[in-house]
Specification:
The chain is of the alpha+beta class. It has helices at about 45-65, 80-85, 90-100, and strands at about 1-5, 20-25, 25-35, 70-80, 105-110, 120-130. The chain is built from 3 helices and 6 strands; from the N terminus they run βββαβααββ. The protein has a 4-stranded mixed beta sheet. A two-stranded antiparallel sheet has the order 1-2.
């Protein structure tokens, strides 16, 4: 993948995400993934645990296209509780790094009233750009 982080020189560098990425290659769009397992069962009750599971699901779908976490260029997170997110931010960061390493694409986090699956606390959509073959 050819990609370039877009960071205006006069801006403070963000922590845990990029302000922008320019990329070229094969685009992969991954539907919102929630924190359940391959059998669509929730094994995690905490938001941080569900974040880890949702990210593992994203990586697994990405593998089907021949991609890896470093090919992700955008994540959009929908969380059901801003308070829970802020209270668990360190555990969420640890769960994120366990799956994604130190790769931080463009990200947005949005609080929503609810998700379709009542046990879900987070849903994450992803976009990746794979190297041209």
């Amino acid at each position: 993948m050819t990609h370039k982080i877009l960071q205006p020189a006069e801006w403070t560098r963000p922590k845990g995400y990029a302000n922008g990425i320019a990329a070229s290659g094969t685009q992969v769009f991954i539907a919102g993934q929630i924190g359940w397992d391959a059998d669509q069962k929730f094994t995690e009750e905490t938001l941080a645990g569900q974040v880890g599971a949702a990210l593992r699901n994203i990586v697994r779908v990405l593998e089907e296209a021949g991609g890896r976490p470093e090919h992700l260029v955008r994540l959009t997170w929908y969380v059901t509780s801003r308070r829970e997110y802020l209270d668990q931010v360190q555990a969420i960061g640890a769960a994120y790094r366990a799956v994604m390493g130190r790769h931080f694409p463009v990200m947005s986090v949005v609080e929503v009233a609810a998700l379709i699956e009542s046990q879900a606390k987070v849903e994450i959509e992803a976009t990746a750009v794979l190297p041209a073959s």
